[in-house]
UniProtKB/TrEMBL annotation:
It is a multi-pass membrane protein. SUPFAM superfamilies: MFS general substrate transporter. Residues 521-595 are annotated as: Disordered. PROSITE patterns: MFS, SUGAR_TRANSPORT_1. This is Major facilitator superfamily (MFS) profile domain-containing protein. Keywords: Membrane, Transmembrane, Transmembrane helix. Residues 543-558, 585-595 have a biased composition (Basic and acidic residues). Residues 570-582 have a biased composition (Polar residues). Residues 559-569 have a biased composition (Basic residues). GO terms for molecular function: transmembrane transporter activity.
Length: 595
């Protein structure tokens, strides 16, 4: 963990990058909307990439191919050569060794197959003969896709905190555009698998990098809503694309894949709206670049330029003189000490793994039962739940709401497992309802957990921790496929009982989250220039201090213009103004004292 969270992370580093509100620095407007659009787009592309393989790898009825010299119909061949199992279904993988001899019941495995002519063009299963003894190749693609995300995220997280979020996003976007073209027109299984590895990794990196950027440029009172909505809208758009394309039953698998991955073509357009995070630049002590970026953002938002100048003056003063009181230093140490951050990282790794394990297990259960009606009801339920609960999540204790959501999701998984053990029409309806509600609960918890992870870590380590948290989640996705195999043995109840236990473990871990779970919630930090928002429990005194600081900020432009008309002004003349009997305050100067 010492390689993830540096031991030399000082409180002043945290205060410099987290000790201001973007709303007071450059306002709120079109600048943030560009980041929001790109975050939605990247989440949409990421989810479409996840759903693309299930869309093109559907099951197709198949049977052993008849020899070319036999002049009989397919139905006659089945009657003559294909054995029947005890359940009345004909074998898909075996045929009689001597079909012409009715007394010879010896069966042999097939090496070639015929497929349902109607569905064969829609699936890679028939295109590359991924059936019977080759069926493991389906699981292999799923696993390799998750591993690609895990590998790329593990590397890019460290790069994001060292070279910048935008540079990492640019690299991921560039590689994604190249590999997506080869992936869409892959002519062999090997090419498809290789490109899938890179596409999945790039999509994951792009999604996490854009999410970190959105969190770091949003005003405190909007950051949770911005990130939560970006995740929810992106996921919903992906589900809608999947549901719509699924209705075209006779569409070929290449056309299906190109359609669901079509949002990738918007990535270059969206990337033009991105800049580097000003918080990252401050954390790296690139103060001139940070100020130039803030001024450009303020102009985009139509915000007064004295906002970024005031924030940067205050930041430079703190960094120059290390101007933190002992109480402020201790308060920041409680939030940003390496030990606290490492414990917090381990907890979010566990919660990310558990939630995405449940998410992918529910997706696999869903794919075995879904209908067009269920798909529509599910998307509608997800949207309603997110629109209802996200404002509540923004106003309330994030930790407690997330724990409650995980417990509810685990309970619903248990109920679904119990309902899956019985039969009958009425119980089928109950199973469908519970599955839809469980999927909606997991959807909401997934959105909340990603937002929570972004919020509780400071800028110097936000990139690596967020990337690794999502990587652990993808590891849960890798595990979901093999453990879901128990469904074939009729023990789906055991599968979801295990998932419920794992989710309860995640809730227990989150209860032990150390320190403050929100940087802006610490009154000592807020009094030192940090920003807050509703739900942080700030005292009335802290709010009054904040109000006074805002009043001072509003007075700056007049004094600033007056001072710049004095061409011969020096530091000593400013001191004389401070002590004048008329009580005139000093004008803002880049070399003067802190306002």
């Amino acid at each position: 963990m010492q390689h993830i969270i540096p031991a030399n992370l000082e409180p002043i580093d945290l205060e410099a990058s987290e000790g201001f509100d973007c709303g007071e620095a450059f306002g709120h407007g079109n600048f943030q909307r560009g980041f929001f659009f790109f975050a939605v787009l990247s989440m949409w592309v990421q989810h479409c990439n996840t759903l693309a393989f299930p869309l093109i790898s559907g099951d197709v009825d198949h049977w052993c191919r008849q020899p070319g010299h036999l002049n009989i119909t397919a139905d006659q061949w089945k009657e003559l050569a294909i054995p029947v199992h005890g359940d009345g279904q004909r074998s898909r993988c075996n045929a009689y060794a001597q079909p012409s001899d009715p007394n010879d019941t010896t069966v042999v495995p097939c090496d070639e197959w015929d497929y349902d002519a109607e569905l064969a063009p829609t699936s890679i299963v028939s295109y590359w003969d991924i059936v019977c003894g080759r069926a493991w190749r389906i699981t292999f693609v799923n696993g390799l896709s998750m591993i690609g995300s895990l590998v790329f995220l593990s590397v890019s997280g460290f790069l994001a905190d060292r070279v910048g979020r935008r540079l990492v996003a640019f690299g991921a976007a560039s590689l994604l555009m190249v590999t997506s073209f080869g992936h869409g027109f892959a002519s062999t299984y090997l090419v498809y698998v290789a490109t899938k590895f890179f596409v999945s990794g790039c999509c994951s990196v792009l999604f996490v990098a854009s999410s970190v950027l959105l969190m770091e440029v949003s005003a405190h009172k909007y950051r949770v809503v911005h990130c939560g909505l970006a995740f929810a809208i992106g996921l919903t758009l992906g589900d809608l694309c999947f549901a719509i394309i699924k209705q075209f039953r006779h569409l070929g698998w290449i056309a299906r894949q190109l359609l669901i991955m079509a949002p990738t073509a918007l990535i270059p357009v969206g990337f033009c709206l991105l800049t580097e995070s000003p918080r990252f630049l401050i954390a790296k002590r690139q103060l001139k670049n940070a100020e130039a970026l803030m001024k450009a953002a303020a102009q985009t938002n139509g915000f007064p330029l004295h906002g970024p100048m005031t924030v940067m003056d205050r930041t430079e003063e703190k960094l120059r003189h290390m101007s933190l009181s002992p109480r402020q230093w201790k308060a920041l140490r409680d939030v940003s000490s390496a030990e606290v951050l490492r414990r917090r990282a381990l907890i979010v790794f566990g919660s990310g793994f558990s939630i995405l394990l449940a998410h992918y297990a529910l997706l696999l259960a869903w794919s075995a039962r879904k209908t067009a009606l269920m798909q529509g009801v599910s998307v509608t339920t997800n949207v309603i739940c997110c629109a209802t609960l996200l404002p509540f999540f923004n106003r309330s204790s994030r930790n407690k709401v997330l724990i409650a959501g995980i417990v509810v999701t685990g309970t619903l998984c248990s109920l679904f497992g119990i309902a899956s053990t019985g039969g009958g029409t009425n119980l089928m309806v109950v199973r469908s309802v519970v599955l839809v509600v469980a999927e909606a609960a997991c959807f909401i918890v997934l959105v909340f957990n990603m937002t929570y992870t972004l919020e509780i870590f400071p800028t110097p380590v936000r990139g690596v921790v967020t990337c690794l948290s999502f990587a652990f989640g993808r590891l849960g996705g890798v595990l979901a496929a093999p453990i879901s195999a128990v469904r074939g043995a009729g023990r789906e109840d055991l599968l979801f009982a295990l998932i419920a236990v794992v989710l309860c473990g995640a809730a227990w871990l989150l209860r032990s989250m150390p320190g403050h779970t929100e940087i802006a919630s610490n009154p000592e930090i807020k009094n030192n220039g940090g920003g807050g928002h509703r739900g942080t429990g700030a005292s009335s005194a802290s709010r009054q201090d904040r109000l006074e600081e805002m009043k001072k900020t509003l007075e700056i432009p007049k004094r600033w213009r007056k001072e710049h008309r004095r061409k011969s002004s020096t530091y000593h003349s400013l001191s004389a103004v401070e002590t004048s009997p008329h009580g005139t305050e000093p004008a803002r100067s880049r070399k003067g004292s802190e306002i």
